[in-house]
Amino acid sequence: MKCKLISPTHERQTPHFTKIYRKAVAHSRGIEVLESRIAPATFFVSNANDNGTGSLRQAILDANFAPNSGGEDLISFASIPGGTFVIEPTTELPAITEAVIIDGYTAPGTSQNTASIGTNATLRVVLSGSSLNSGSGLTLGVAGGDPVATGGSTVRGLVINDFHPGINDSGNGILIQSSGNKVEGNFLGTTTGGDAGLGNSSSGVSVGGIFNTNTLVGNTIGGPALADRNVISGNTLGINVGLEALDTHIFGNLIGTDRTGEFAIPNTNTGIRVGGNNTQIGGAGVGEGNVVSGNTVRGINVGTGSNTTVLGNIIGLTAAGTSVLPNGRGILLDNSATNITIGGSGTGAGNVISGNFEVGIEIGSSVGDGPANNVTVRGNKIGTDVSGTLKLGNQNGGIKVFGSTGTTIGGTSPLDGNVIAFNTNAAGISVSEFVGPSSVAILGNSIFGNRLGIDLAGGKQNFFGVTENDTFDSDQGPNGLTNWPTLTNLTNSGSNVMFDFSISAQPVTNYRIEFFALAPGQVDVSGSGQGAVLLGSQDVNTNAAGQFVGVFAQTIGLPANSYFTATITDTSAGQTSEFSPALGLPGGTYTWNGAQSSDWFNPLNWAPNGVPGAFDTAIYHGGTNPIQLDGDAGVLHFQHSAGAMTGFGTLYVRDTFTWTGGSQDGTNIGFYGTTANINGGGQPLQWNAGAAFVIYDGTLTIGGAGLAFNTGLFAINPNGKLTLNAGVFDQDGGSSFSNTFNAGKIEKFGTGAFGLETTTVQNSGSIESRAGSLTLNGYTGSSGSKLGLTGGNIQTSGTLTLDTDGELFGTGTINGNLSNNGGYVYVGIGEVTGILNLTGGYTQTASGTLAVDLRGTTAGTNYDQFAVGGTASIDGVLNVTILPGYTPALGHTLNVLTSSGLAGTFSAVVGEGAFATNYTTNNAQLVRNGLTYTWDAGGGGDTSWLNPLNWSPDGLPGASDAAMLNSNATITLDTTDVTV
C-alpha cells in the first residue's frame, strides 16, 4: 500500500524546508496515520538582496508563515559568501510574529565570545539602516498583538547599526513588542569590529514602544554565559525598557564601551533606561553583571518603574574595574520610581559605581523630575574599585538624595554596608529636599576620603557644609536635620578605647548610635570626621528633654593617633545625622620626605609613616620627590620652606600656614580660620601654575618681596582678610588668567608701590590702600564693594570700574582712569574733607553719584574736591552735604570737580542748600547766590529761626535772600539779629 506525503503551504512556497514526519503504525489490515508533528524549520539566507529568495526579508516571511509547534524555527546564514556580509534594507523588514532563532553565528568564519573581560567574538553578518529612511533593524512581535504567541524569538550573532527614527517606534537596533525573547551575542550600534560607533538613533534594544499597550513579559538581553554578551554602544539609548515591560533581565553586556570594555563608545543619552516593573540589571552570579560605562548623560536611569534590582555591575569603570571610563551620572532614580534595590549583601551582588563625571547615585532628580522612594543601597563600592583601595572617585559626590522617603543606604547586617570613598567636590552622601521630603537611614557603611562624609543640606552651615546642632533638635529639613552626637574625653592606649558621648535630639525617641574609627589622614578637611571603620553601635532612648549621655568602650587594637566619630539614626523615622566632629588625641607632626613617590596620601612618604590629618602639623622642607596633592586634604599647621607643590587638589589649613620657600605649582590652598604668612625674604615666592588661593575666615599677610603669579587667582570670602606688606604681581606680564576675587577685606600697608598686579580684580568686599601705592589692574567693584584711599594711593594700568552700588572713597591719588557706572564716589573720609586726585579721565553715567562735604571755602581743607587730571564726562547725581558750623555766604564759589575739560552736567543735585550749580569749561561749581527760603515750621523739631532744618531748602536766609512766612507761623528769635 502507498502512503502519500502532503507538504504544508510554506514548504510549497520555498524549497528550503524540513520534512514533515508522520508516525505510522502497520497493522495487518494496512497503515493507520495516528498523528503528525511539525519539526522546526530552517530558512537559509544566501544573499544580501532586499527581497526574494535567499534574502533575509523572505526568510522572515517564511518563518512567520511556517507553523513551528515543535520549537523555534531557525534563520541560518550558513550559505552566505565570505567576508563581511551587509544587508541594507530599503524598507523596514517585516515584524517577526512566530518564534524564530536568527543566528549570525551560523555564518562561516564567525565565533562566539570566550573572553571573561570584553568580548573576542567574531561577527560577519551586518544589518544596516544606512539605506532606510526610518525604521528599526528587527522587530520582535507586533504592537497590540498577542505578546506570547508572537514572542519567544532569539537574535544572536548580528551587527545591527545605523537605523534612524521616523514617526513610529523606529530607529532601534531591535524593537521588542512581545514576550519571552532573547538578545544575545550581538554588536548593537557599533561597526563590525566593535571598536567604533555607528549608532542606532533611538535605542540599541527597546522593549516596548509608544504604540504597544500589552504587557511584555520575560525578555532577556544578554545572559550569564560568555557567549551571551552583547556590545550595546553608540546609540542614543543603549537599552530602553518601556512602561509595558515586565520581568526584563539584562545580563552580562558591555553598554557604552567598545568590545574590549576599555574604551568608550558612548550611548549619547543613557546606557539603560527603565520605565517598566520588575527589571533586573545584572546579577550576583558569575557573568551576570554588566559593564555600563562611557555613556554621555547617565549609565542607568530608573524612572516610574517599581521593583528594579541592580546587582553586580561595573558602572563608570573599564571592564577590568581598575581605571575610570565615566558616564555622566552613574545611576539616576527619579520620576516616582519605587522599591529599588542597588546592590546586595551576598557575594557578587554589590555594584562598583565609580569614576563618573557627576554623582555616583542620584536619588530624586536634581532637575526636578520627581523623587524616588523606598530605595535600598547596600554592599556597593562607590568611588573605588572592588577591593575598596583604588581612588576612582565620582567627581561630584558618591550618593546625592534630592527627595526620597523610606530609603536605606547600608543596613544593620554585617555585609549590608557600602564602601563610599574618594568621591570629590561633594559629600560621600548628601541629602536634600529639592524635589520632596527626605528620610534616609545611613547605617553600617565605610565612608572616607570624600569632601564630607554625610551632608544634610539646610540649617546653619559652615563653609564646608557642616550643619550646626540646634537646641532640642527642633529645626526642619532633610532627615529632620538630626543633631549629630558629641564625643569627649578620649582614652586610647592602643588596645583599649574609651570615650564619652552625648546626644541632644528629639525627646523620648529611640536612636541607634554608630561609632567609627579613622586614621589621621581620613579625617575630612572640615574636621567633622567621616567613618572608615564601623566599631559598633548602641540603641538608646532619650529622656523628656531629648538628652542621653553614655560611654563607648571597646577592647580593640587601634593606633594611638586614631580618630573617632559617630552618627545617630532615628530608628522610627529612618533619619540619620551627619558625622560628629572627629575626636582624637593631640595631633602629631609629619615631615615630608617623598621617599616612595610624590603622592601626599602615601603614608610611606612621611616621617613618621602616616598621612597628616585635620589636627596634625605637616612640614615640607623638600624631599626625594615633590608633593603632588590629587585630592583634598586638611591639616592644622603647614610649614613650607622648600620644594614644589603640585596636583589638582586643595590643601585646607585650619590654624597656621607659613611659606618661606619653594613654589606652588598647581595645588590649591584654602585657609579656614587660619593665620597665614607668606614671606620669602629678598625674592618673590613663585606661584607658577593653575592654583587658587582661597581665604576662608582667615588672615593672610604677604611680606618680603611678595608673591609672583604666572597663573591662578586669589579668592577672599566675606570673613577673610588679606594684608599686603608686599605685592602680588603677574610675573608673565598680564597674559595669564591670574585673577583676584575679594568678598572679604584687603588692606595694603607699607610705603612701597605694590599690590594686586593680576589680570583682573573683582571686588565685592573691602579694599583699602593705607600707605604707599596699591596697584589694582582690571578692577571692578560690584554691589556692596568698597575701595578706599585711607593714607595711600591707587595705581591701575587701565580703568577702575564701579558697577551698580559699588563705592570708592577717600583722599589721595588714583593714577589711571575711573568709570562710575552706577556706583558712588565719596570724596574725603567720613566728615574729614580732602582732595581726591585722578590723573586720568572720569566718566559718570546717569546712575552714578559723586558725593562731597562742605564746611568752608578752601578746597581740601574745608570742602571736598574731586580733581580730575584728564577730561570729565558727567551725568547722574551730585550729592552735597553742608557740615555743621558752615553758613555759606553770598558769593562763595566752590570748585567741587575740576578737570582739563568738562562735558555734560549733573542731572540732579541733592542737598545743595543755599548753593546753585555752575559749569565752566573745566569745572563743576557750587555758587552761593540769593535764594528764597520758605518756613516749614517744625521741620527741625522746634520753632527757632536759627535752626536751618526749619527752612526749605535747609539753611538760613541771609542778607541777599528772601524769607517766606505763612500767616500762621510761630517763630522764636532770641538774642540775635538777622537781616534778609
Structure description:
The chain has a 15-stranded parallel beta barrel with strand order 55-57-60-63-66-69-72-74-75-73-70-67-64-61-58. With 980 residues, it is mostly beta strands. It contains 2 helices and 90 strands. Strand 3 (42-44), helix 2 (56-65) and strand 4 form a beta-alpha-beta unit.
| Unreliable spans | 1-37
Number of strands: 90
Q: What global shape is seen?
A: elongated
Please give the largest β-sheet.
15 strands, parallel, barrel
Strand content is: 35-45%
Structural class, by secondary structure, is mainly beta
Level of helix content? Answer: under 10%
Please state how the strands of the largest beta sheet are arranged side by side: 55-57-60-63-66-69-72-74-75-73-70-67-64-61-58
Distance between the termini: 151 Å
The assembly state of the depicted protein chains is: single chain
**Average pLDDT level:** 90
Keywords:
Immunoglobulin-like, single chain, 90 strands, mainly beta, 15-stranded parallel β-barrel, 13-stranded parallel beta sheet, 980 residues
Secondary structure layout plus pairing:
Layout: H1 9-13, E1 20-27, E2 30-38, E3 42-44, H2 56-65, E4 73-76, E5 85-87, E6 100-103, E7 125-128, E8 138-140, E9 154-156, E10 158-161, E11 174-176, E12 182-184, E13 187-188, E14 203-207, E15 216-217, E16 220-222, E17 231-232, E18 237-241, E19 245-246, E20 249-251, E21 254-255, E22 270-274, E23 280-282, E24 291-292, E25 298-303, E26 309-311, E27 314-315, E28 329-334, E29 338-342, E30 352-353, E31 361-363, E32 373-377, E33 381-382, E34 399-401, E35 404-410, E36 419-421, E37 429-431, E38 438-443, E39 446-448, E40 454-456, E41 486-492, E42 496-504, E43 510-518, E44 533-541, E45 547-555, E46 563-570, E47 575-576, E48 583-584, E49 589-592, E50 606-607, E51 617-621, E52 627-628, E53 633-642, E54 644-646, E55 650-659, E56 663-664, E57 668-672, E58 675-678, E59 685-687, E60 692-696, E61 699-702, E62 707-709, E63 713-716, E64 721-724, E65 728-730, E66 739-742, E67 745-748, E68 753-757, E69 760-763, E70 766-769, E71 773-776, E72 779-781, E73 786-790, E74 793-802, E75 807-820, E76 824-827, E77 835-838, E78 842-844, ...
Parallel strand pairs: 3-4, 4-6, 5-7, 6-9, 7-10, 8-11, 9-12, 10-13, 11-14, 12-16, 13-17, 14-18, 15-19, 16-20, 17-21, 18-22, 20-23, 21-24, 22-25, 23-26, 24-27, 25-28, 26-29, 27-30, 28-31, 29-32, 30-33, 31-34, 32-35, 33-36, 34-37, 35-38, 36-39, 37-40, 49-51, 51-53, 52-54, 53-55, 54-56, 55-57, ...
Antiparallel strand pairs: 1-2, 41-42, 42-45, 43-44, 43-46, 46-47, 46-48, 49-50, 83-87, 86-87, 88-89
